[in-house]
């Protein structure tokens, strides 16, 4: 482990490079890698400076970071603060409906994280952080989903694991314990009384992919899409409202792309797309990924952040449902990102490349693992690739 002095020197030299890269607008993988190293070294320095007692205490209390952010987006505060200038706590309180005392406490806490600042005393104005929220409505939908749906599930993880230490059942996940329900996550979300949460969840998928931590740009850069045939047919299974598909279509206009998701998601997407000018090469289809794949002989079947929702047996079912559609050379791409949320919601598993290779093989020996694709600046994300060799009875 480095000393505080060594880390300080390293941070100073990395910071200089990052500043120069930012001035040159250099966003190459090498520049992003250096920025990541700087962020990691800064986190390590913070831990060393604080020492274990303070650092661990802050980790335990980080729940307030998430809940204060949750209040801010739930009450739509970023859009109530003027773009330029400031607003008083009293005015903000009457605009958002939250009493002034609690509003002030919550915003002052959030200011520790540089979300808003108070200047002059008693008046609130934007920072780059809070302005990002005001400019990213779909990302705020995702943050509202975190506050209303994910936080209760994450808080229940220790109790759920104590109750079911070895289970893989989707009905025995922390989400179920928090909600006191036996329903698996998506069945619960589908209930009539959860319509508002569902809408936030569906829109939030685009928000997190475009403005949050699960940037779809990673998948566009990590996989060599340009090496596919010019008129490649791509199916985005579990593609939500088509946010990835539309970016893929913009980068590769000659591809034809089908976005599949649950009927309610596709219904809403078609509704939303009526007034939007989406690319014609992207079409939408309601399809349950456990049913036989209706789009035959596509070049690519892409599943982004879908497998992490499911235990092994269900992933094998999803892959098996693809088999009748595959032609020799069809690629199955599974894009994943490491996080603990899927454990809280679904008891799902994070898998290594060996485990993915086994999953593909268990679905069919003709589905041959071809390796992984990553970008250096987002080591938590990975695209696992299998190619169908054909030649077996499906
Ligand atoms: C974590 S989201 C990922 C969405 C999108 N691929 C992305 O990367 O933002 C998982 C998606 O799978 C969809 N989904 C869940 N169960 C499904 C099923 N049985 N068949 C098809 N899609 C499903 C959800 O509606 C949701 O859009």
TrEMBL record:
One of its GO terms (biological process) is methylation. This is O-methyltransferase C-terminal domain-containing protein. Keywords: Methyltransferase, S-adenosyl-L-methionine, Transferase. The keyword Transferase applies. PROSITE patterns: SAM_OMT_II. Residues 195-362 form the O-methyltransferase C-terminal domain. The keyword Cell division does not apply. It comes from Apiospora kogelbergensis. One of its GO terms (molecular function) is O-methyltransferase activity. It holds the Pfam family Methyltransf_2.
């Amino acid at each position: 482990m480095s000393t505080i002095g060594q880390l300080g020197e390293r941070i100073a030299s990395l910071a200089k490079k990052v500043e120069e890269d930012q001035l040159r607008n250099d966003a190459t993988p090498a520049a992003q890698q250096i920025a990541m190293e700087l962020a990691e070294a800064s986190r390590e320095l913070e831990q060393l400076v604080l020492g274990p007692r303070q650092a661990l205490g802050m980790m335990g209390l980080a729940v307030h970071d998430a809940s204060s952010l949750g209040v801010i987006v739930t009450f739509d505060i970023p859009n109530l603060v003027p773009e330029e200038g400031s607003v008083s706590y009293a005015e903000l309180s009457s605009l958002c409906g939250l009493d002034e005392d609690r509003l002030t406490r919550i915003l002052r806490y959030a200011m520790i994280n540089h979300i808003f600042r108070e200047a002059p005393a008693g008046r609130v104005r934007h920072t780059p952080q809070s302005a990002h929220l005001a400019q990213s409505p779909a990302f705020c939908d995702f943050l509202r989903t975190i506050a209303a749906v994910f936080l209760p599930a994450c808080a229940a993880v220790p109790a759920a694991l104590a109750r079911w230490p070895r289970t893989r059942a989707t009905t025995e996940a922390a989400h179920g314990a928090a909600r006191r329900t036996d329903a698996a996550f998506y069945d619960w979300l589908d209930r009539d009384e959860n319509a508002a949460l569902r809408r936030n969840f569906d829109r939030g998928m685009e928000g997190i992919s475009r403005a949050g931590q699960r940037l779809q740009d990673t998948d566009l850069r990590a996989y060599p899409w340009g090496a596919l045939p010019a008129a490649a047919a791509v199916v985005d299974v579990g593609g939500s409202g088509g946010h990835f598909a539309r970016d893929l279509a913009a980068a590769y206009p000659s591809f034809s792309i089908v976005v599949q998701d649950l009927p309610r998601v596709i219904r809403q997407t078609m509704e939303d797309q009526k007034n939007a000018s989406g690319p014609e090469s992207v079409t939408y289809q309601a399809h349950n990924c456990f049913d036989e794949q209706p789009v035959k002989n596509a070049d690519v079947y892409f599943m982004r952040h879908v497998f992490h929702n499911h235990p092994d047996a269900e992933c094998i079912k999803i892959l098996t449902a693809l088999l009748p559609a595959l032609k020799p050379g069809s690629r199955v791409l599974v894009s994943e990102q490491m996080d603990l949320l899927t454990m809280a919601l679904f008891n799902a598993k994070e898998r290594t490349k060996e485990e993915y290779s086994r999953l593909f093989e268990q679905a069919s020996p003709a589905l041959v693992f071809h390796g992984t694709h990553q970008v250096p600046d987002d080591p938590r994300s990975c695209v696992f690739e299998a190619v169908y060799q054909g030649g077996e009875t499906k």
